[in-house]
Amino acid sequence: MGPVRSIAARLRRFHKWNCPSLSRGKRDTAWLGMYGELAAASFLRAEGCVILRRNWRPVRGGELDMVCREGECLVFVEVKTRTGNGYGGARRAVNARKRALIRRGAAEWLRLLPEPVNFRYDVVEVLYREGKPPEFRHIRGAFGAKDLYVS
């Protein structure tokens, strides 16, 4: 069993992805992010997406939290995990620099494909509140070629 599957198996013990404790402090933001990505993957599967890859970092640069397929569309997903609205929502967190990294990763993924495909960029926001199931906000087509959000 690989490390991701092992972590996922341990986390399944928590009831419906409830966040067990948010009092771990800022030193564990990586833990919270990983936990949010696992919950987002579960959410996307329930929405009908097929997860093709998680945490893909191509050699030429860029980063993709998830690559999914929804029907005939390839979806590059950025996951933002929050414990409150203090830092703004997911839209604000995916700034121009982050979008450029996602686009670079997506370009590398698309370069590996034998033929062109339809694709889009989505953002999934995972909001945890102490002792409650996470809330999900799926922003389909969150940004495009012109670096603008599409509502």
- Write down how many β-strands occur, each being a DSSP E stretch of 2 or more residues: 5
* CATH C-level label: Alpha Beta
- Give the end-to-end Cα distance, rounded to a whole number of Å: 41 Å
Q: What is the radius of gyration?
A: 15 Å
Counted by DSSP, the helix tally is 4
Which strand order do you get reading across the main beta sheet? 1-2-3-4-5
CATH topology: Trna Endonuclease, Chain: A, domain 1
Secondary-structure-based class equals alpha+beta
Q: Quote the average pLDDT.
A: 81
- The CATH architecture term is 3-Layer(aba) Sandwich
Low-confidence stretches: 1-7, 10-16, 147-151
Largest sheet: 5 strands, mixed
Order of helices and strands: HHEEEHHEE
Pfam family, one: UPF0102
Protein name: UPF0102 protein CXU09_05400
InterPro entries: Restrct_endonuc-II-like, tRNA_endonuc-like_dom_sf, UPF0102_YraN-like
GO molecular function: nucleic acid binding
Overview of the structural elements:
The chain has 151 residues and is an alpha+beta fold. The protein has one domain: Trna Endonuclease, Chain: A, domain 1, CATH 3.40.1350.10. 31% of the residues lie in helices and 28% in strands. The protein has four helices and five strands; from the N terminus they run ααβββααββ. It has a five-stranded mixed sheet with strand order 1-2-3-4-5. The radius of gyration is 15 Å and the shape is globular. The N terminus and C terminus are likely disordered.
